[in-house]
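Marked as duplicate of an earlier ticket. Keeping the data here for the record.
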Amino acid sequence: MTALKRALRAYPMVATTLLVAAVGLVLLATPARAAAPILVGVYALLIAAWQAVGMIRSLIGGKAGLDILAVTAIVAAVLVGEPWAALVVVLMLTGGEALEDYAENRSKRELTALLQRAPRQATRVHPDPDATGGERLDTVDISDIAIGDVLLVRPGELVPVDAVLLDPSAQFDESSLTGESLPVERRSGEKIASGVVNGAAAVRMRASALAADSQYQQIVALVSEAQQSRSRTVRLADRYAVPFTVLSLAIAGIAWAVSGEAVRFAEVLVVATPCPLLIAAPVAFLGGMSRAAKSGLIVKGGGTLEQLARVRSAAFDKTGTLTTGRPQLQRVVAAPGFTEDDVLQLAAAAEVYSSHVLAGAVVDAAKARGLAVLAVEEASESATNGVAAELAAVGAAAGGAGAARPGAVVRVGKPAWVAETAADLARVDLAPGELAIYTALDDRFAGAIVMRDRLRDEAPETLAELRSLGVERMLIVTGDVAATARPIGERLGIDEVHAECHPADKVEIVAHVQPRPLLMVGDGLNDAPVLAAADVGFAMGARGATAASESADVVNRFDRISGVADAVRIGRDTVRIAMQSIWLGIVMSVALMLVAAFGFLPALLGAWLQEVVDLAAILGALRAIAPRGSRSR
């Protein structure tokens, strides 16, 4: 009963319509039964007038909808003496909002779940000599957390903001971010992303980012944007409004003219009012977005799903997209006057400040050799080229012969860029699949770090599936050198490889790719321009507030290339189901109209049957959440 009362309060027009119906039925059982059709008819006409105002506003705005059929049906039914049929049409109109809310809530369940999981509070630790244990614990809103605050995360709690682990070790469930179901062990000093779940022991960590800049909160922002988007394609049924309206009025008019009975006109129109049918397309698209969210994909609107359904070309960045982005150190080539440790230590000092996916591998390699990360006064990154860092202090190991000093500038990155200041740079020989990161100290070439990045295990299968889904052309567009990029293309069967591309080059290349639409898959800050320029931009791995995630149309929360094929398949399934639902409603309505035109369908029965048609269309659209035969990953 409580739920019913809540529903009636939420939808007052439905409650009023049901009340009018109840009063009318009571009147039929009394001597005042003649007042029942008058009450019902007047109420129906009032609702028709209210709907007509909205319809006129839409027409003035240049948009014709199916409301004109509903208004005409209500008026015609009342005029020919069928007020109860008119009331059923009114119930359909007023109940449409409630039905739409139910369908939308059901279809976007996964998106809503992501929002509801967002951390909201945290336990902050304060030093307090007067308290037991010398500290005080306060529960605060995550927006009040400052960088550097020490936080206590209890067992099973969500990590509230991005932080650095202070305890020696801890286990975390990172499935919400990575899709990995097994717990992951982290060590002291490692970064912990917001939104992951702490294991069985309470841990302490130091906040390294504000709430708004933390990883899970950025995902929440992307989800909110996706939920609020209302693309023109979500109103897919609108394009059928005018022809369906003309057809319905034509059938009704012919039935009246041939039979000579005005009631035929009303009988036809009461089964030609599929207003909730307009809900079918939005429900299908929301269902597709929810299904995508379950696979770790945040799709920003129904328009993106329709574009995904028609994708004919796909372009890929290489590092961190087709490859894992976690290369293994192969060797270090040191220039005269430097040692291997010098090269690694200098490179790591600069790479700490880089957003490139290879930077972490360089830092990890230096740490693995027990090399301290040198202090840096300031650093700047040149997109797709490398990082320049001014040293604040230099350890004894760096610069072997004492060439390194406070104020010296380290350059790490591509050979051509590093050679701008280090004229003595010598390129190293690379085996197929290897890549080199060059390092210079001021105007001296220090050496190169040679690494090998591994092709993602699922990459060949994903590209094969994209081809089976109708993607005709594939290309690699990367900033890496050709010697590194071409072997990857050969292993994947991609002949078209564009290497050593700057961001502007990538935009220029994808702008001329045919056939369209084009799907661009990338990862990291440098891919943001080309992701925004593509018909569909797909960002691999939502790494906090990266420009790539913000400019992309699809963001893959899980670091899996298979999500690209999932996105295209979901787009195709969603559009197919949306169209099926629309045509289901249209065909059933036309069939009922023809039956009514020959006088075999009373107006009241027809009105109830039309409710069944609308419900069938919406239930059909809900299949987009998990269509038969769909695969979960």
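See parent ticket for discussion. Residues 328-452 form a domain with the Calcium-transporting ATPase, cytoplasmic domain N fold (CATH 3.40.1110.10).
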